Amino acid sequence: MSDLLKGKRGLIMGVANERSIAWGIAKAMAEAGAELAFTYQGDAFGSRLKPLAESVGSDFMVDVDVTDDASLDTAFEQLAARWPSIDFVVHAIAFSDKSELTGRFLNTTRANFKHSMDISAYSFIEVARRAHPLMLENGGTLMTLTYQGSNRVVPNYNVMGVAKAALESATRYLANDLGPDGIRVNAISPGPMKTLAGAAIGGARKTYKHTDQNAPLRANATLEAVGGTAVYLASDAGACTTGEIIRVDGGFHVLGMPQQEYL
C-alpha cells in the first residue's frame, strides 16, 4: 500500500502504547505515505506516545481531554494553524470504570453510564463537529472503533456494549449529515485484541481464545489487518464507502454457535 495516502494528512486520537489499535492504524497510514498528528491525555500517555510519533516522522502532539470543550477547541485550533485542511481523523477513544466491566450489566451505575457514553460515543460527535471545517475544501474521512458487543451480548462488556451501540448509530447519522460535504464516516469493528483497553474487560483472555479457536479464519484480528482497513477507508479507494461498520474479526460475526470441535 505504498503511497496510497501520499499527500494526505490526518489526526490520530487514542494511542496508548505500541500495542494500541490506534497505533496499528497510525503505523499503516504512515507507511502508506500519510502525515500524522496525534492527541494524548496526560503526561504519562504523552511520554509513551512521543517516541512512537517520532518513529513515523511526526512532531505534532497535543494534550486533549475529550470531555472538555475548551480542550477540544484548543487542539483543533492548533491543528488548523499547522494544516489548513486535513483528510482524515481516527477516533480510538473509549472508557468505562473497570470495576463495572465484570458481573452484571444490571448493576451499572448512573454515573459510570453517563461517563462511558460521554467519552466512548459522544466524543466522536464533538470531534466530527470540529474536524468538519477542516475537510470542507477537499472532503475527508472520519473513522472510529467499535466491537461486536454493540449488538450481541459479550460477557463483562456491559455498559461498553451500550456505548458502542450508540457510537455505531452516531456513525450512521454523521455519515448522512456530512455526506453532502464529501466527508465519509465509518467504524471499524475488530475482534478481541490484546491491547491495554482490551485487558480491562473481565475474562479477556477467555474471549480472545474463544474467538481465535472458532472464527472461520481461526485467528483473531491483527494490528496490521486493522491498519490496512483504515488505510483503505482513508484512501481514494474508499471514496464511496460511508456509514459502514466494517468487521475485521476473522469472520467471527457470522457464527451462530461454536465450531463442532468446541461444542
TrEMBL record:
<feature type="active site" description="Proton acceptor">
    <location>
        <position position="147"/>
    </location>
</feature>
<keyword id="KW-0443">Lipid metabolism</keyword>
<dbReference type="InterPro" id="IPR002347">
    <property type="entry name" value="SDR_fam"/>
</dbReference>
<feature type="binding site">
    <location>
        <position position="93"/>
    </location>
    <ligand>
        <name>NAD(+)</name>
    </ligand>
</feature>
<keyword id="KW-0444">Lipid biosynthesis</keyword>
<dbReference type="GO" id="GO:0004318">
    <property type="term" value="F:enoyl-[acyl-carrier-protein] reductase (NADH) activity"/>
</dbReference>
<comment type="pathway">
    <text>Lipid metabolism; fatty acid biosynthesis.</text>
</comment>
<feature type="binding site">
    <location>
        <begin position="65"/>
        <end position="66"/>
    </location>
    <ligand>
        <name>NAD(+)</name>
    </ligand>
</feature>
<dbReference type="GO" id="GO:0006633">
    <property type="term" value="P:fatty acid biosynthetic process"/>
</dbReference>
<dbReference type="InterPro" id="IPR014358">
    <property type="entry name" value="Enoyl-ACP_Rdtase_NADH"/>
</dbReference>
<feature type="binding site">
    <location>
        <begin position="20"/>
        <end position="21"/>
    </location>
    <ligand>
        <name>NAD(+)</name>
    </ligand>
</feature>
<feature type="binding site">
    <location>
        <position position="41"/>
    </location>
    <ligand>
        <name>NAD(+)</name>
    </ligand>
</feature>
<dbReference type="Pfam" id="PF13561">
    <property type="entry name" value="adh_short_C2"/>
</dbReference>
<feature type="binding site">
    <location>
        <position position="164"/>
    </location>
    <ligand>
        <name>NAD(+)</name>
    </ligand>
</feature>
<comment type="similarity">
    <text>Belongs to the short-chain dehydrogenases/reductases (SDR) family. FabI subfamily.</text>
</comment>
<keyword id="KW-0276">Fatty acid metabolism</keyword>
<protein>
    <recommendedName>
        <fullName>Enoyl-[acyl-carrier-protein] reductase [NADH]</fullName>
        <ecNumber>1.3.1.9</ecNumber>
    </recommendedName>
</protein>
<keyword id="KW-0560">Oxidoreductase</keyword>
<feature type="binding site">
    <location>
        <position position="14"/>
    </location>
    <ligand>
        <name>NAD(+)</name>
    </ligand>
</feature>
<feature type="active site" description="Proton acceptor">
    <location>
        <position position="157"/>
    </location>
</feature>
<keyword id="KW-0520">NAD</keyword>
<dbReference type="InterPro" id="IPR036291">
    <property type="entry name" value="NAD(P)-bd_dom_sf"/>
</dbReference>
<keyword id="KW-0275">Fatty acid biosynthesis</keyword>
